[in-house]
């Protein structure tokens, strides 16, 4: 599977979902090397909880989901404060977000409109980018389905 252009240079960026093989390691002795690429997936929620997944990509293209965040009923500043406590969050780039947060649909007191993404950018989350609206999202859905209920499978 070729590397999508939004993830980086195909000559230096590992391939995604190599062989679509999944395993679980909860061995506390296993350490993620600091040079593995950190990327994130983000979905801001108003009605539903806000979610974030932190992944590391090794030099062979294997993706390791290493942290998750799932929190309802907070605003962007509160979420960002919580997200910054996740080890590796600040290094994640890009952080791919649901395209809906990039629409200027939030009414402001001055009569204008802002996107939710603008609020995160203003608070310092510069690595937030719009996720592509392509078939690659189906691959992410497969990843998420794998992680849905690990404790009971």
Describe this entry's structure for a reader:
The protein is an alpha/beta fold and 153 residues long. It has three helices and seven strands; from the N terminus they run E-E-E-H-E-E-E-H-E-H. The strands form two sheets. The protein has a five-stranded mixed beta sheet with strand order 3-2-1-4-7, covered by helices on one side. A two-stranded antiparallel ribbon has the order 5-6. The longest helix has 12 residues, at 136-147. The two termini are 28 Å apart.
List the helices and strands and how they pair.
Elements: E1 37-43, E2 50-57, E3 63-71, H1 76-83, E4 95-97, E5 106-107, E6 113-114, H2 116-122, E7 128-130, H3 136-147
Parallel strand pairs: 1-4, 4-7
Antiparallel strand pairs: 1-2, 2-3, 5-6
Features:
153 residues; Nucleotidyltransferase, domain 5; elongated; two-stranded antiparallel ribbon; 7 strands
Which structural class matches the secondary elements? alpha/beta
Number of continuous helical runs: 3
What overall geometry do the principal axes of the alpha carbons give? elongated
Major sheet: arrangement of strands: 3-2-1-4-7
Say what oligomer this is.
Answer: single chain
How large is the radius of gyration?
16 Å
């Amino acid at each position: 599977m070729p590397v999508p252009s939004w993830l980086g240079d195909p000559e230096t960026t590992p391939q995604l979902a190599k062989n679509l093989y999944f395993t679980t390691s909860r061995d506390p002795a296993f350490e993620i090397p600091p040079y593995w690429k950190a990327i994130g997936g983000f979905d801001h929620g108003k009605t539903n909880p806000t979610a974030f997944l932190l992944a590391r990509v090794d030099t062979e293209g294997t993706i390791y989901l290493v942290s998750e965040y799932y929190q309802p009923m907070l605003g962007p500043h509160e979420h960002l404060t919580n997200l910054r406590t996740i080890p590796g969050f600040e290094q994640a780039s890009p952080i791919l977000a649901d395209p809906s947060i990039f629409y200027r649909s939030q009414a402001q007191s001055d009569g204008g409109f802002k996107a939710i993404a603008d609020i995160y950018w203003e608070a310092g989350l510069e690595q937030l980018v719009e996720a592509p609206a392509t078939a690659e999202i189906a691959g992410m859905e497969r990843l998420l389905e794998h992680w849905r209920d690990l404790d009971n499978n």
